[in-house]
Protein backbone atom coordinates (compact mmCIF):
# COMPACT_ATOMS: atom_id res chain seq x y z
CA UNK A 1 0.00 0.00 0.00
CA UNK A 2 1.25 3.40 -0.98
CA UNK A 3 0.74 6.17 1.58
CA UNK A 4 2.41 9.45 2.28
CA UNK A 5 1.46 10.01 5.88
CA UNK A 6 1.54 13.63 7.00
CA UNK A 7 1.31 13.71 10.76
CA UNK A 8 2.39 16.02 13.55
CA UNK A 9 2.09 17.09 17.17
CA UNK A 10 -0.31 19.70 18.61
CA UNK A 11 -2.86 20.49 21.40
CA UNK A 12 -6.03 22.65 21.85
CA UNK A 13 -8.54 24.03 24.37
CA UNK A 14 -10.59 21.11 25.61
CA UNK A 15 -14.06 21.94 26.86
CA UNK A 16 -15.36 18.61 28.07
CA UNK A 17 -16.04 16.56 31.16
CA UNK A 18 -14.57 13.29 32.31
CA UNK A 19 -16.50 10.33 31.06
CA UNK A 20 -17.87 12.05 27.92
CA UNK A 21 -18.61 9.60 25.14
CA UNK A 22 -18.59 10.19 21.40
CA UNK A 23 -21.83 10.21 19.45
CA UNK A 24 -21.79 7.10 17.29
CA UNK A 25 -23.76 6.41 14.15
CA UNK A 26 -23.78 2.63 14.38
CA UNK A 27 -23.45 0.84 11.04
CA UNK A 28 -25.60 -2.13 10.23
CA UNK A 29 -24.07 -5.20 8.64
CA UNK A 30 -23.94 -8.80 9.84
CA UNK A 31 -20.64 -10.27 10.95
CA UNK A 32 -20.74 -12.69 8.04
CA UNK A 33 -20.25 -9.82 5.61
CA UNK A 34 -16.87 -8.76 7.00
CA UNK A 35 -15.00 -11.23 4.81
CA UNK A 36 -16.62 -9.92 1.63
CA UNK A 37 -16.09 -6.33 2.82
CA UNK A 38 -12.39 -7.09 3.29
CA UNK A 39 -12.23 -8.32 -0.30
CA UNK A 40 -13.95 -5.14 -1.47
CA UNK A 41 -11.56 -2.90 0.48
CA UNK A 42 -8.51 -4.58 -1.07
CA UNK A 43 -9.57 -3.16 -4.43
CA UNK A 44 -8.74 0.32 -3.15
CA UNK A 45 -5.43 1.89 -2.24
CA UNK A 46 -5.79 5.27 -0.63
CA UNK A 47 -3.05 7.83 -0.28
CA UNK A 48 -3.30 10.66 2.16
CA UNK A 49 -3.52 13.79 0.06
CA UNK A 50 -1.58 16.95 0.45
CA UNK A 51 -3.85 18.38 3.07
CA UNK A 52 -5.71 21.46 1.98
CA UNK A 53 -3.78 23.88 4.14
CA UNK A 54 -2.49 27.34 3.24
CA UNK A 55 1.21 27.76 2.56
CA UNK A 56 1.53 29.68 5.83
CA UNK A 57 0.34 26.68 7.86
CA UNK A 58 2.76 25.13 10.33
CA UNK A 59 2.32 21.57 11.55
CA UNK A 60 4.79 19.85 13.85
CA UNK A 61 5.84 16.39 15.00
CA UNK A 62 5.86 13.25 12.96
CA UNK A 63 7.44 11.03 15.58
CA UNK A 64 4.34 9.25 16.87
CA UNK A 65 3.28 8.54 13.31
CA UNK A 66 6.77 7.18 12.62
CA UNK A 67 6.28 4.70 15.45
CA UNK A 68 3.04 3.49 13.88
CA UNK A 69 4.75 3.20 10.50
CA UNK A 70 7.43 1.05 12.10
CA UNK A 71 4.64 -1.14 13.44
CA UNK A 72 3.26 -1.39 9.93
CA UNK A 73 6.66 -1.96 8.34
CA UNK A 74 9.35 -2.63 10.97
CA UNK A 75 12.05 -2.83 8.27
CA UNK A 76 11.63 0.84 7.39
CA UNK A 77 13.74 2.08 10.32
CA UNK A 78 16.09 -0.81 11.00
CA UNK A 79 18.30 1.22 13.33
CA UNK A 80 15.53 1.83 15.84
CA UNK A 81 15.48 -0.59 18.79
CA UNK A 82 12.33 -2.26 20.01
CA UNK A 83 11.86 0.12 22.91
CA UNK A 84 9.28 -0.64 25.61
CA UNK A 85 6.80 1.80 24.05
CA UNK A 86 7.18 0.37 20.55
CA UNK A 87 7.01 -3.17 21.92
CA UNK A 88 3.76 -2.30 23.68
CA UNK A 89 2.34 -0.84 20.47
CA UNK A 90 3.34 -3.93 18.48
CA UNK A 91 1.57 -6.07 21.04
CA UNK A 92 -1.61 -4.02 20.70
CA UNK A 93 -1.52 -4.26 16.90
CA UNK A 94 -0.80 -7.98 16.98
CA UNK A 95 -4.20 -8.51 18.59
CA UNK A 96 -5.96 -7.30 15.43
CA UNK A 97 -6.92 -10.12 13.04
CA UNK A 98 -4.72 -9.91 9.91
CA UNK A 99 -7.77 -10.04 7.64
CA UNK A 100 -9.09 -6.85 9.24
CA UNK A 101 -5.71 -5.13 9.53
CA UNK A 102 -4.50 -5.87 6.01
CA UNK A 103 -7.89 -6.19 4.36
CA UNK A 104 -9.65 -3.06 5.58
CA UNK A 105 -7.72 -0.82 7.99
CA UNK A 106 -4.51 -0.35 6.00
CA UNK A 107 -5.97 -0.37 2.45
CA UNK A 108 -8.56 2.22 3.50
CA UNK A 109 -6.09 4.19 5.68
CA UNK A 110 -8.51 3.94 8.61
CA UNK A 111 -5.63 4.44 11.06
CA UNK A 112 -5.24 8.01 9.75
CA UNK A 113 -8.90 9.06 9.80
CA UNK A 114 -9.00 10.25 13.46
CA UNK A 115 -6.03 12.51 12.69
CA UNK A 116 -7.80 14.15 9.74
CA UNK A 117 -11.00 14.51 11.77
CA UNK A 118 -9.17 16.21 14.65
CA UNK A 119 -7.20 18.42 12.28
CA UNK A 120 -10.07 19.76 10.19
CA UNK A 121 -13.30 19.29 12.09
CA UNK A 122 -12.82 19.25 15.86
CA UNK A 123 -12.75 22.55 17.77
CA UNK A 124 -13.41 23.84 21.26
CA UNK A 125 -17.08 24.02 20.24
CA UNK A 126 -17.25 20.22 19.99
CA UNK A 127 -17.29 18.17 23.23
CA UNK A 128 -13.73 17.35 24.28
CA UNK A 129 -12.43 14.62 26.56
CA UNK A 130 -9.10 12.82 26.97
CA UNK A 131 -8.44 9.13 27.45
CA UNK A 132 -10.56 6.20 26.31
CA UNK A 133 -13.03 6.88 29.12
CA UNK A 134 -12.23 10.52 29.84
CA UNK A 135 -9.81 9.57 32.60
CA UNK A 136 -7.26 12.21 31.55
CA UNK A 137 -9.69 15.08 31.02
CA UNK A 138 -9.09 16.80 34.36
CA UNK A 139 -5.27 16.64 34.20
CA UNK A 140 -5.20 17.75 30.57
CA UNK A 141 -7.36 20.81 31.27
CA UNK A 142 -5.27 21.69 34.33
CA UNK A 143 -2.03 21.25 32.37
CA UNK A 144 -3.34 23.50 29.63
CA UNK A 145 -4.17 26.26 32.11
CA UNK A 146 -0.83 25.95 33.90
CA UNK A 147 1.28 25.95 30.75
CA UNK A 148 -0.52 28.97 29.32
CA UNK A 149 0.01 30.89 32.55
CA UNK A 150 3.70 29.99 32.63
CA UNK A 151 4.75 31.10 29.15
CA UNK A 152 4.59 34.70 27.98
CA UNK A 153 3.11 34.25 24.49
CA UNK A 154 -0.50 35.03 23.63
CA UNK A 155 -2.17 31.63 23.84
CA UNK A 156 -5.87 32.22 24.44
CA UNK A 157 -6.57 31.09 20.88
CA UNK A 158 -4.74 27.73 21.15
CA UNK A 159 -7.33 24.99 21.49
CA UNK A 160 -6.84 21.62 23.17
CA UNK A 161 -8.44 18.79 21.18
CA UNK A 162 -8.81 15.09 21.89
CA UNK A 163 -8.29 12.48 19.16
CA UNK A 164 -10.40 9.34 19.49
CA UNK A 165 -10.62 6.12 17.51
CA UNK A 166 -14.27 5.79 18.49
CA UNK A 167 -15.14 8.40 15.88
CA UNK A 168 -14.62 5.62 13.31
CA UNK A 169 -18.12 4.36 14.21
CA UNK A 170 -19.64 7.61 12.93
CA UNK A 171 -20.10 7.08 9.19
CA UNK A 172 -20.79 10.75 8.45
CA UNK A 173 -17.64 11.97 10.22
CA UNK A 174 -15.45 9.32 8.63
CA UNK A 175 -16.83 10.05 5.15
CA UNK A 176 -16.15 13.77 5.63
CA UNK A 177 -12.54 12.96 6.59
CA UNK A 178 -12.05 10.84 3.47
CA UNK A 179 -13.26 13.70 1.30
CA UNK A 180 -11.14 16.28 3.13
CA UNK A 181 -7.84 14.45 3.45
CA UNK A 182 -7.40 11.69 0.89
CA UNK A 183 -6.99 10.90 -2.77
CA UNK A 184 -7.03 7.56 -4.54
CA UNK A 185 -3.96 5.89 -6.05
CA UNK A 186 -4.44 7.94 -9.23
CA UNK A 187 -4.39 11.21 -7.32
CA UNK A 188 -8.10 11.85 -7.79
CA UNK A 189 -10.33 13.17 -4.98
CA UNK A 190 -12.51 10.68 -3.16
CA UNK A 191 -16.12 11.01 -4.34
CA UNK A 192 -18.87 11.35 -1.78
CA UNK A 193 -20.33 7.96 -2.68
CA UNK A 194 -16.95 6.25 -2.33
CA UNK A 195 -16.28 8.09 0.93
CA UNK A 196 -19.55 6.77 2.38
CA UNK A 197 -18.72 3.27 1.15
CA UNK A 198 -15.26 3.36 2.75
CA UNK A 199 -16.66 4.82 5.97
CA UNK A 200 -19.27 2.06 6.17
CA UNK A 201 -16.68 -0.67 5.63
CA UNK A 202 -14.46 0.80 8.33
CA UNK A 203 -17.30 1.30 10.79
CA UNK A 204 -18.49 -2.28 10.30
CA UNK A 205 -14.99 -3.64 10.90
CA UNK A 206 -14.45 -1.53 14.03
CA UNK A 207 -17.85 -2.41 15.45
CA UNK A 208 -17.61 -6.14 14.78
CA UNK A 209 -13.95 -6.81 15.67
CA UNK A 210 -13.60 -7.33 19.45
CA UNK A 211 -9.87 -6.55 19.41
CA UNK A 212 -10.60 -3.02 18.16
CA UNK A 213 -12.72 -2.31 21.25
CA UNK A 214 -15.14 -0.05 19.45
CA UNK A 215 -12.29 2.15 18.22
CA UNK A 216 -10.50 2.45 21.56
CA UNK A 217 -7.30 1.02 20.13
CA UNK A 218 -3.88 2.65 20.10
CA UNK A 219 -3.45 2.19 16.34
CA UNK A 220 -6.07 4.87 15.72
CA UNK A 221 -4.84 7.54 18.12
CA UNK A 222 -1.17 6.94 18.88
CA UNK A 223 -0.21 10.50 18.12
CA UNK A 224 -0.08 14.10 19.30
CA UNK A 225 0.47 17.12 17.10
CA UNK A 226 0.46 20.92 16.94
CA UNK A 227 -0.83 23.08 14.11
CA UNK A 228 -1.05 26.77 13.33
CA UNK A 229 -2.95 27.85 10.22
CA UNK A 230 -4.23 31.38 10.91
CA UNK A 231 -7.45 32.26 9.16
CA UNK A 232 -8.02 28.67 8.06
CA UNK A 233 -8.49 26.50 11.14
CA UNK A 234 -7.94 27.31 14.83
CA UNK A 235 -4.52 26.86 16.37
CA UNK A 236 -4.60 23.46 18.05
CA UNK A 237 -2.76 20.97 20.18
CA UNK A 238 -4.25 17.53 19.55
CA UNK A 239 -3.77 14.73 22.06
CA UNK A 240 -4.52 11.15 21.04
CA UNK A 241 -5.96 8.61 23.44
CA UNK A 242 -3.52 5.95 22.24
CA UNK A 243 -0.36 7.79 23.20
CA UNK A 244 -1.73 8.41 26.70
CA UNK A 245 -2.68 4.75 26.99
CA UNK A 246 0.80 3.67 25.92
CA UNK A 247 2.59 5.73 28.52
CA UNK A 248 0.10 4.65 31.18
CA UNK A 249 0.97 1.03 30.34
CA UNK A 250 4.65 1.86 30.93
CA UNK A 251 3.89 3.47 34.29
CA UNK A 252 4.16 7.13 33.23
CA UNK A 253 0.53 8.14 33.52
CA UNK A 254 1.47 10.71 36.18
CA UNK A 255 3.80 12.71 33.93
CA UNK A 256 3.07 11.86 30.27
CA UNK A 257 0.09 14.23 29.83
CA UNK A 258 2.11 17.19 31.11
CA UNK A 259 5.25 16.15 29.24
CA UNK A 260 3.65 15.61 25.86
CA UNK A 261 1.52 18.75 26.12
CA UNK A 262 4.53 20.81 27.21
CA UNK A 263 6.43 19.69 24.12
CA UNK A 264 3.56 20.43 21.77
CA UNK A 265 2.86 23.83 23.32
CA UNK A 266 6.52 24.68 22.77
CA UNK A 267 5.87 24.37 19.04
CA UNK A 268 3.25 27.09 19.38
CA UNK A 269 5.86 29.26 21.08
CA UNK A 270 8.00 28.70 18.00
CA UNK A 271 5.12 29.59 15.66
CA UNK A 272 4.24 32.71 17.64
CA UNK A 273 7.81 34.03 17.97
CA UNK A 274 9.11 33.09 14.53
CA UNK A 275 11.57 30.44 15.74
CA UNK A 276 10.07 27.82 13.44
CA UNK A 277 11.55 29.55 10.39
CA UNK A 278 15.05 29.96 11.77
CA UNK A 279 17.98 28.19 10.15
CA UNK A 280 20.42 26.77 12.72
CA UNK A 281 24.16 27.17 12.14
CA UNK A 282 25.47 24.77 9.51
CA UNK A 283 22.07 23.33 8.60
CA UNK A 284 21.87 22.18 4.98
CA UNK A 285 18.95 19.72 5.03
CA UNK A 286 15.28 19.71 6.00
CA UNK A 287 16.11 17.01 8.55
CA UNK A 288 18.46 19.41 10.33
CA UNK A 289 15.79 22.12 10.40
CA UNK A 290 13.30 19.72 11.96
CA UNK A 291 15.84 18.51 14.50
CA UNK A 292 16.51 22.09 15.56
CA UNK A 293 12.86 22.88 16.31
CA UNK A 294 12.26 19.51 17.99
CA UNK A 295 15.25 19.78 20.31
CA UNK A 296 14.20 23.32 21.19
CA UNK A 297 10.72 22.02 22.05
CA UNK A 298 12.32 19.31 24.19
CA UNK A 299 14.34 21.92 26.07
CA UNK A 300 11.36 24.23 26.60
CA UNK A 301 9.20 21.36 27.81
CA UNK A 302 11.87 20.23 30.30
CA UNK A 303 12.26 23.84 31.48
CA UNK A 304 8.54 24.13 32.24
CA UNK A 305 8.14 20.67 33.78
CA UNK A 306 10.80 21.13 36.44
CA UNK A 307 10.53 24.88 37.12
CA UNK A 308 9.06 25.45 40.59
CA UNK A 309 6.67 28.02 39.18
CA UNK A 310 5.81 25.74 36.29
CA UNK A 311 5.11 22.02 36.49
CA UNK A 312 7.21 21.76 39.68
CA UNK A 313 7.83 18.09 38.94
CA UNK A 314 10.66 16.01 40.33
CA UNK A 315 13.59 16.18 37.92
CA UNK A 316 14.45 12.51 38.32
CA UNK A 317 10.89 11.47 37.57
CA UNK A 318 10.68 13.76 34.55
CA UNK A 319 13.97 12.38 33.27
CA UNK A 320 12.67 8.83 33.62
CA UNK A 321 9.67 9.73 31.49
CA UNK A 322 11.75 11.59 28.94
CA UNK A 323 14.04 8.58 28.56
CA UNK A 324 10.98 6.71 27.28
CA UNK A 325 9.64 9.72 25.37
CA UNK A 326 12.94 10.32 23.64
CA UNK A 327 13.33 6.71 22.62
CA UNK A 328 11.08 7.83 19.82
CA UNK A 329 14.15 9.76 18.68
CA UNK A 330 15.39 8.20 15.49
CA UNK A 331 18.34 7.47 13.26
CA UNK A 332 16.65 8.70 10.07
CA UNK A 333 19.17 11.47 9.59
CA UNK A 334 17.90 12.41 6.12
CA UNK A 335 14.19 12.23 6.96
CA UNK A 336 12.19 15.46 7.05
CA UNK A 337 10.72 14.18 10.32
CA UNK A 338 14.08 13.61 12.05
CA UNK A 339 13.79 14.62 15.71
CA UNK A 340 17.34 13.95 16.81
CA UNK A 341 18.73 10.83 18.39
CA UNK A 342 17.61 9.84 21.88
CA UNK A 343 20.95 11.07 23.25
CA UNK A 344 20.59 14.46 21.58
CA UNK A 345 17.06 14.82 22.86
CA UNK A 346 18.12 14.02 26.40
CA UNK A 347 20.93 16.57 26.19
CA UNK A 348 18.34 19.17 25.19
CA UNK A 349 16.15 18.18 28.13
CA UNK A 350 19.02 18.39 30.59
CA UNK A 351 19.79 21.83 29.23
CA UNK A 352 16.19 22.77 30.07
CA UNK A 353 16.50 21.24 33.56
CA UNK A 354 19.65 23.23 34.28
CA UNK A 355 18.14 26.45 32.95
CA UNK A 356 15.11 26.00 35.19
CA UNK A 357 17.37 25.40 38.18
CA UNK A 358 19.31 28.59 37.49
CA UNK A 359 16.13 30.62 37.01
CA UNK A 360 14.63 29.31 40.24
CA UNK A 361 17.69 30.46 42.17
CA UNK A 362 17.14 33.90 40.69
CA UNK A 363 13.45 33.69 41.59
CA UNK A 364 11.84 34.31 38.23
CA UNK A 365 10.59 32.75 35.00
CA UNK A 366 12.63 33.43 31.89
CA UNK A 367 10.75 34.77 28.89
CA UNK A 368 10.38 32.54 25.87
CA UNK A 369 12.92 34.73 24.05
CA UNK A 370 15.44 34.28 26.86
CA UNK A 371 15.03 30.50 26.84
CA UNK A 372 15.35 30.51 23.06
CA UNK A 373 18.50 32.65 23.09
CA UNK A 374 20.17 30.40 25.64
CA UNK A 375 19.22 27.33 23.60
CA UNK A 376 20.73 28.81 20.44
CA UNK A 377 24.05 29.30 22.21
CA UNK A 378 24.01 25.73 23.53
CA UNK A 379 22.73 24.09 20.34
CA UNK A 380 26.09 23.07 18.78
CA UNK A 381 27.02 21.09 21.88
CA UNK A 382 23.56 19.47 22.02
CA UNK A 383 23.91 18.02 18.52
CA UNK A 384 27.54 16.96 18.82
CA UNK A 385 27.95 13.43 17.43
CA UNK A 386 26.81 10.68 19.75
CA UNK A 387 29.49 8.47 21.23
CA UNK A 388 29.82 5.10 19.55
How does this model look, in words?
The chain is α+β, with helices and mostly antiparallel strands. It folds into two domains: 1-137 and 155-252, no CATH class; 278-388, no CATH class. Helix content is 48%, strand content 7%. It has a four-stranded mixed β-sheet with strand order 2-5-6-3. Helix 1 (34-41) crosses helix 4 (98-105), helix 2 crosses helix 3 and helix 12 (286-306) crosses helix 15 (368-382). The longest helix has 21 residues, at 286-306. Mean pLDDT is 81; it is low at 1-32, 74-79 and 333-337.
SSE map:
Elements: H1 34-41, E1 46-48, E2 58-60, H2 63-72, H3 84-94, H4 98-105, H5 113-120, H6 137-150, E3 159-163, H7 171-181, E4 182-184, H8 192-208, H9 218-221, E5 224-229, E6 233-240, H10 241-249, H11 256-273, H12 286-306, H13 315-325, H14 342-362, H15 368-382
Parallel strand pairs: 3-6
Antiparallel strand pairs: 1-4, 2-5, 5-6
Mean model confidence by pLDDT: 81
Series of secondary-structure elements, N-terminal to C-terminal = HEEHHHHHEHEHHEEHHHHHH
Spatial strand arrangement across the major sheet? 2-5-6-3
Low-confidence stretches: 1-32, 74-79, 333-337
Question: Please, how many helices?
Answer: 15
What is the count of β-strands? 6
| CA radius of gyration | 20 Å
Shape annotation: globular
End-to-end Cα distance, whole Å, is 36 Å
Strand coverage percent? 5-15%
Helix content: 40-55%
